[in-house]
UniProtKB/TrEMBL annotation:
GO terms for molecular function: kinase activity. This is PTS fructose transporter subunit IIB. Keywords: Kinase, Phosphoprotein, Phosphotransferase system, Sugar transport, Transferase, Transport. Its EC number is 2.7.1.202. Residues 118-140 have a biased composition (Basic and acidic residues). It comes from Halomarina halobia. NCBIfam families: FRU. One of its GO terms (biological process) is phosphoenolpyruvate-dependent sugar phosphotransferase system. The lineage of its organism: Archaea, Methanobacteriati, Methanobacteriota, Stenosarchaea group, Halobacteria.
Length: 151
């Protein structure tokens, strides 16, 4: 099976490289061909070409930053945090295999589960669903920390 993957972490110094290396080694051990693009502090390394993406059976995005899935719109796609590619690369590759065999798109669970729930429950489900929270914990923001420091 031919796979393509993108790894990315916020700093782009260590985790994205470790994830890429683990995915490459695990794919080779399982008998798959994989091309991994690393997005980090130095930009994109080993950038995936259009022919590589077109020849792939499935795609993996292991990232803690925003990675555009547009390039992989015709492929079964598995999305996960970069730690999954570091700690459990075989699990990610197995999910990509299952997605390729079923022709489905598999995600990290939260976003796709919410989407699947709203589709299956009818038109009122979208109104009941909680809006997606943007940003992190407000208590950890710069102004909140400054306010605690100065009070």
């Amino acid at each position: 099976m031919k796979l393509v993957a993108v790894t990315s972490c916020p700093t782009g110094i260590a985790h994205s490289q470790m994830a890429a290396e683990n995915l490459e080694q695990t794919a080779a051990r399982l008998g798959h061909e994989i091309h991994v693009e690393i997005q980090g502090a130095m930009g994109a390394e080993n950038e995936l070409s259009a022919p590589q993406i077109a020849a792939a059976d499935a795609a993996i995005i292991a990232a803690d930053t925003a990675v555009s899935p547009d390039r992989f719109e015709d492929l079964p796609l598995v999305k996960a945090p970069v730690k999954d590619a570091v700690n459990d690369p075989e699990g990610l590759i197995r999910r990509a295999e299952a997605a390729a065999e079923g022709g489905t798109v598999a995600g990290d669970g939260e976003s796709n589960a919410a989407t699947a729930d709203t589709r299956s429950e009818g038109p009122d489900a979208a109104e009941r669903a909680e809006p997606e929270r943007v940003g992190g914990d407000p208590r950890k923001g710069l102004f909140a920390r400054l306010r605690r420091l100065l009070s």
